[in-house]
Design goal:
The complex is a heterodimer of chains A (197) and B (430). Chain A has 197 residues and is mainly α. Chain A has ten helices and no strands. The longest helix of chain A is centred in the last third of the chain and has 28 residues. Chain B is globular and about 70 Å long. Classes of the chains: A mainly alpha (197), B alpha/beta (430). The structure holds flavin-adenine dinucleotide.
Amino acid sequence: MKQKNIIKNCLLLVFSMASGVSLAGTPSASMLADTCAGCHGTNGISNGPATPTIAGISNDYFIEVMEQFKAAEIPSTIMSRIAKGYTEDEIKLMARHFSGMKFKRKPQQFDSKKAALGKKLHKKYCEKCHEDGGRKSDDDAGILAGQWAAYLQNTLQDYTSGDREMQKKMKKKVDSLQKDHGNDGLDALINFYASQQ
Amino acid sequence: MSKLNRRNFLSLTSGALAATSLGFPMLSLAGTKRVVIVGGGIGGATAAKYIRMADSSINVTLIEPNKNYYTCFMSNEVLGGGRDLDSIKFGYAGLKKHGVDVVHDLVTGIDPVARKVSIKSGSSMSYDACIVSPGVDFRWEAIEGHSEAVIDKVPHAWKAGPQTAILKKQIMAMRDGGTVAIVAPPNPFRCPPGPYERASQIAWYLKNHKPKSKIIILDNKPKFSKMGLFTAGWEKYYGFNSSNSMIEWVSGDAGGKVASLDVAKMSLSTDAADFKADVINIIPAQKAGKIAFTAGLVNEGGWCPVNQRTFESSNHKDIYVIGDSSVAAPLPKSGYSANSEAKVCAAAIVAKLNGKDSPEPSLVNTCYSIIMPDDAISVAMVYRMGKDGKIMKIEGSGGLTPADSSAAMRKREVGYAHSWFNNITDDIFG
Ligand SMILES: Cc1cc2nc3c(=O)[nH]c(=O)nc-3n(C[C@H](O)[C@H](O)[C@H](O)COP(=O)(O)OP(=O)(O)OC[C@H]3O[C@@H](n4cnc5c(N)ncnc54)[C@H](O)[C@@H]3O)c2cc1C
């Protein structure tokens, strides 16, 4: 694990040195990323109640989701308008920047009974890809644990309504969760993620 | 961040250097760079924090007369009843934690040759770079009978705090069936959608508490920011365009240009008619903050021209102007713009004081407007430098909330607007 990170960091270093040359005239990663702080919080750590924390986000997931915002392939209130302002290279720079920061969990309200049920449901339906109770970003699936509940609710709404496409395998799990537990199941999961502070 | 790392790296490798600066901090003072910031509002406070975050060896002094800052943003929600005044009040403890020297005083002059800032209490401070972010001042003379002396009776509430409280109190004390007149200012002014968000928020309060009352907006202009979205929202919630509309908007061409105010009679005159009202909120025409005039930073239009790559004044070297006072168009005069400009300016100053070229800028603006508690709209834009050295909009980016966005998406925007408020205020003062 540690070794993997060291190798990853070395690769990143080589990467950023190389792209530093080819991207002359491009704003630096921190120059670009600092403009997001007004909405996502300083260094990408959001104070809620709804806008997601993006610090610690997986490099690959960040690139994927920004490109999807840009192409308006996934629903958003405002990110589509923002993402269109950045080139592919700039998105890569920011991906490295935000994935290198630490996700910080802030206190938020939750129902502990629902959270307890959510914990079980997570294990059964979601843990396979959202490892460590949804804390990991290595699996390129978005950090769920400690993410703002209102944001998760919006996102799950988009997934289950079909407005945002799910990966086939995730869809299978979410479908069977909904079949077995209905919307209460999703609600329990959101409370479980919110309970991790 | 990378700067900090480089610093740590340097001080680790050159042991001798590290020992001196740790053991004898006074000795290094002669070489310490000093930035003096005039105004602890959105632009000034952001710049102070971001300079310290990028390079903690730079000495930053922030001069601001008030112990607390009330944000203008979300002050309209105070009028609507959605939040209280305390929730928009911020102190300077956070900046002090970043090592910013906060001095509560008023700047009375800036000497660009001696590179000194003088303050009301008598002393002066020298600087390597001075940032000026004094917000706006008002052109009282634009409306006859209007002056700073009447603002307890006819509040502007365009600088938040006590003024917001006065306007709110007047609206709450008003009889059901009364009229609130809002006089909207001519361009350019702080927060283009602000007057119309204000009308929406006051309408929300009146609809729930004094439903027979009316709001009349007397406007200098033929159109306004987010006009289509606002008027559609007013139609939906406040009967706009119906015979029983709570909100009436009178454009400049239709007789909305206010020429004079009679405070005793509580009436306003335009070239078309006289309007009597129970509450009058005049949002005056605007210009750069007073100190910008004193320091010779303004152009003939009354705003401060700058090099848009660094925000250094076009009139004086080593003085930088950000926020509402600066000519940053195409960026509008908004809090998000001031916050974004401050970061570009901070990075340029840090680079310069470290003997480096100014970095390539990137900027963003967003303004949320809350029409009622379940419905918010937004405008956004991403900016960068054009080849001509001027800030330009990035084509294809930004724009308004789509007119056909669903009620569910509008409701989401309310949650995101409140998140924006929490995050930007923490980014500035935290
Ligand atoms: C009702 C309303 C709603 C708004 N809503 C939004 C919104 O939703 N989104 C948004 O982005 N923007 C919004 N704005 C705009 C935003 O508030 C301003 O654009 C922003 O405050 C500009 O920052 P600034 O630093 O230029 O000035 P300010 O924030 O006004 O700060 C200026 C500071 O300088 C100090 N000062 C002045 N002169 C001196 C001196 N001589 N010496 C020392 N200190 C001095 C003042 O005391 C003040 O604290 C709104 C404005 C209003 C009025």
